């Protein structure tokens, strides 16, 4: 499993917005355009300038060990680890301008706490 730093997550937020927007459009469109067998669901552009489809968005999140909790709200968790080896999740939602939250896996969204982490972790 990949562990993310706060700086790495912050650098990826523009890309995460593109992926979440593609997933949201995919959820809202019962019928999507068919192009070469791929479901094109957004005008959000991938790294190549091509539209991002639902499968591409889901695959990219999975391949990068980013946990999609809810596509509608754009809720993502990024695994992270402290210098002391404590594993936690950096938590971000699509409507949030910046990364500002974290929680332990067993706490879920309800256990979100504001960054920075406490110094004893």
Q: Widest sheet: strand order?
A: 3-4-5-6-7
Which regions are unreliable across 5 or more consecutive residues at pLDDT < 50? 30-48
Report the principal-axis shape: globular
As an assembly, this protein is single chain
- Give the biggest beta sheet: 5 strands, antiparallel
What structural class do helix, strand and pairing data support? alpha+beta
Distance between the termini: 20 Å
User: What's the total count of β strands?
Assistant: 7
Helix-strand sequence: HEEHEEEEE
Overall pLDDT metric: 85
The number of helices is: 2
Tell me the fraction of residues in β-strands, as a range: 15-25%
Account of the 3D structure:
By secondary structure, the protein is an alpha+beta fold. It is built from two helices and seven strands, in the order αββαβββββ. The protein has helices at 6-28, 54-63; strands at residues 33-35, 38-40, 67-70, 75-81, 87-92, 101-103, 113-114. A five-stranded antiparallel sheet has the order 3-4-5-6-7, covered by helices on one side. The chain has a two-stranded antiparallel ribbon with strand order 1-2. The protein is globular, with a radius of gyration of 15 Å. The two termini are 20 Å apart. The model is unreliable at 30-48 (pLDDT under 50).
């Amino acid at each position: 499993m990949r562990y993310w730093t706060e700086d790495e997550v912050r650098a990826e937020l523009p890309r995460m917005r593109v992926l979440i927007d593609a997933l949201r459009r995919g959820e809202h469109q019962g019928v999507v355009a068919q192009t070469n067998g791929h479901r094109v669901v957004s005008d959000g552009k991938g790294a190549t300038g091509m539209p991002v489809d639902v499968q591409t968005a889901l695959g990219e999140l999975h391949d990068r060990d980013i946990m999609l909790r809810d596509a509608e709200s754009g809720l993502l968790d990024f695994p992270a680890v402290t210098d002391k080896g404590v594993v936690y999740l950096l938590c971000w939602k699509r409507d949030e301008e910046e990364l500002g939250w974290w929680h332990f896996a067993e706490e879920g969204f309800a256990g979100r706490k504001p960054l920075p982490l406490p110094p004893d972790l």
